[in-house]
Design a protein that fits this description.
The protein is α+β, with helices and mostly antiparallel strands. It folds into two domains: 6-205, Alpha-Beta Complex (DNA primase, PRIM domain), CATH 3.90.920; 235-331. The chain has helices at residues 6-16, 43-51, 79-90, 117-131, 183-188, 195-205, 235-243, 249-262, 267-278, 292-304, 315-318, 326-331, and strands at 24-27, 34-37, 57-59, 65-73, 96-99, 105-116, 137-139, 153-155, 169-172, 175-179. It has a six-stranded antiparallel beta sheet. It has a two-stranded antiparallel sheet with strand order 1-2. The chain has a two-stranded antiparallel ribbon with strand order 3-8. Mean pLDDT is 87; it is low at 212-231.
Length: 334
């Protein structure tokens, strides 16, 4: 457990959550009214935030540089930020999930030194595009300030009034359904991203450095069973993850695991995701919800072989079919 004193905690906190030092964003915890505070970001400002007195919002962009990047997922669907974390891991980076103040999640990346914001943003946009979530909000929102005075702020983690409620806190990296018990110990073991890593990703993926959109890809072979992007999920699978099912839970668990495996998620995170998902199920005829042991068994079975089928023929999957889905069009001869 961390045994940092107050001064050490403030110093550690500022090493991660810092940007412009002459302005910050805040809001009234009682009314939610947002305002800009044009005053220095002092240790007292940080301490008031940590104590839950006055929230602190960071303007991450300083000129054209940033020391951190945050992706804002508005939905309370843990599978989505987990997929982003898996995407960063595929590129050799570590990222951290925070439960935001009201609903949804932030995923943070921290850099060893200030990096060009456009490079950090283009890499994040690449991962989001591969997930099928290209319109997800990224902070900083701009590549550089140019004529802007401040840019946009994002609410910082660990606002003392919300921490006891399990909000503005980081989850366990290896078990995202659980809030990390010692937030300061987690910050002490955060692995920052070196600037050279962003350059390597941009070069290897052929990303256009002068804009924040991925460069066009060469046509790929679409003869396999999954025409969606490597991180994408068909509409039926996204709907099942959101709503849960009422029958064929084991079949559905296996098919979900197959699809999530194709997104690049490791087995342990898939099991965690499906364990959370199972609580949304409402089995008919008095049947029980699938157990954690059964979920683990089905997920492990899905990972044992290279299953490529989409499961469209399964009754439970077909019941969520979206006729606009390219898989449905192919199945119907479109």
């Amino acid at each position: 457990m961390s045994n940092l004193n107050t001064i050490e905690k403030i110093r550690l906190y500022k090493s991660f959550f810092t940007g412009l030092d002459n302005v910050y964003g805040t809001y009234d915890p009682n009314t939610g009214t947002v305002r800009q505070a044009k005053e220095p970001v002092t240790d007292e400002v940080i301490l008031a935030h940590l104590k839950g007195i006055q929230p602190y919002g960071i303007y991450l962009l300083t000129g054209d540089n940033t020391k951190a990047l945050a992706v804002d997922f508005d939905e309370d669907e843990l599978a989505v930020p987990i997929a982003f974390v898996a995407g960063t891991k595929r590129f050799g980076m570590f990222s951290y999930i925070e439960r935001s103040k009201s609903k949804g999640f932030h995923v943070w990346l921290f850099f060893e030194v200030p990096v060009e914001a456009r490079k950090a943003r283009i890499v994040a946009k690449k991962i989001l595009a591969d997930m099928g979530k290209p319109n997800t909000e990224i902070f900083p929102k701009q590549d550089c300030l140019n004529n802007l005075s401040y840019g946009n702020f994002i609410n910082a983690p660990l606002f003392g009034k919300l921490v006891p409620k399990g909000r503005t806190v980081f989850v366990e990296p290896g078990e995202p359904v659980k809030v990390c018990e010692d937030q300061w110990e987690l910050l002490q073991r955060v692995q920052r991203v070196p600037a050279i890593r962003l350059d390597a990703i941009i070069q290897s993926c052929g990303l256009e450095i002068n804009n924040t959109e991925p460069a066009p890809k060469k046509p790929e072979d679409t003869s396999h069973d999954m025409p969606e992007p490597s991180f994408g999920l068909p509409p039926c699978i996204r709907k099942i993850l959101t709503e849960g099912v009422t029958f064929d839970q084991r079949v559905c668990t296996f098919r979900l695991a197959v699809h999530l495996k194709k997104t690049g998620l490791p087995l342990d995170l898939v099991i965690t995701t499906l364990t959370v998902w199972a609580q949304k199920n409402k089995p008919k005829d008095g049947k029980r919800i699938i157990t954690d042991k059964e979920i683990k068994s089905q997920a492990e079975y899905a990972y044992q072989n290279d299953y490529r089928g989409c499961g469209c023929e399964e009754t439970v999957i077909a019941s969520f079919c979206d006729h606009n889905c390219p898989l449905a069009s192919r199945k119907n001869g479109g």
